[in-house]
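Please, structure for the following, as tokens.
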Amino acid sequence: MTSFVYGQNQAFVVTEREAQEIFDVTQAGRFAIGLGLNSNVPLGSPFSISGGAKTGPFRYSLINSAQVELAYSISSAFELSIAGGIEQYASRFDLDTNPTDNTYDFVRNTIRNFPLLLIARIGFAGNRYWRPEIEAAAGLSFSKVSIAQDTSTDPPKVNSTKALRGHLSVGAGIPWTKHLSLHTSIGYQYQKIGSKQYALTGGSSKVDQKNLSGLFVKGLVRFQF
């Protein structure tokens, strides 16, 4: 870009200034690979204790995951991708405490999910720094639920399921370089693991299980080639 500077000698001086390059978030006909970190904030605890002297929900905990995404841009505003990853959740419930020796009888539950999703992302006209986006995903989650009681010598109760998983979110795409971009989104995630009861040892207490649906937050760093 050429600019004119009015100097002290009352004459115009011609200088050269490099133009700022504008990068596109998505280019049509390109593939991209990305690494994402997600959090799911369940609407209430997905596990609770019933049937015994002490009842109630497990301690509240977030669900955190990491995923790899492979995308193809059908146009500069629409792309499809396949994503897979691993997700971990853990919580506990204190059935009884002994204040004398500070010991606990507690139940610990863990969930490990392996989601496999088809994602559609639509980008809208923004400015040179970012663009608004809508993301919708649907697929399956392969889950393994484990319930372990601290004072029991029985092995943990394990339940493996395969169920529907999906989310709908809004966010922003931010270009860093010609090939690198950042995508953030927030929305609602549906995660079904099914309703189930697990009987505990040494009493009438049971663990009740329900779905993991809740608020969905995602950050994705992507390289386009």
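The two ends are 29 Å apart (CA to CA). The mean pLDDT is 85.
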